Amino acid sequence: MADAQRKxxxxxxxxxxxxxxxxxxxxxxxxxRLSRQSFVVRRPGAVRTGTVxxxxxxxxxxxxxxxxxxxxxxxxxxxxGVADGRPESGEWVAAEPVGAWLTLTWxxxxxxxxIVLYDRPDLSSNVRSGTLSFDDGSVLIVHALPPAGTPEHxxxxxxxxxxxxxxxxxxxxxxxxxxxxxxxxxxx
Length: 188
Description:
Layout: H1 3-35, E1 39-42, E2 58-59, E3 65-68, E4 92-93, E5 101-119, E6 126-134, E7 139-142, E8 151-172, E9 177-187
Antiparallel strand pairs: 1-3, 2-9, 3-5, 4-9, 5-8, 5-9, 6-7, 6-8
């Protein structure tokens, strides 16, 4: 090979490496985020122990560890506020609308009897159906959530569980998820 050809070859290799590094720096965080099967969004602080009187059911979702299948932090929809007890303080938008899931896990048994789901207030993106699953294997079918963030209540006989998962089975629009999830009950 002539020196000029060798020089051109090395210049081409150098240019390709620079392009590869630039593309890697730009798209690697997204690729890593999308390749994860799940990640913890928020862990609760210390939970006070003590006796709970009968009828003292309250929203215990803020006391749970929140894990999601994916999220969209680029638009500040990273699920941080989806279980904080305050609708419209933060919402969860999944990267994949169908099959996306959100799990709440408590470190102690929870006695629960109601779950309240708030669809996102975006009228163009709605949860059309889903499933609520519990660690005992039982499930509740979720039909279309009311649009515009109106709460939908799901009441059931009291059950003891350590976790509940909401999965989106059918959705419409480009950015589906939840504005808030509340779990009514007590921690034991």
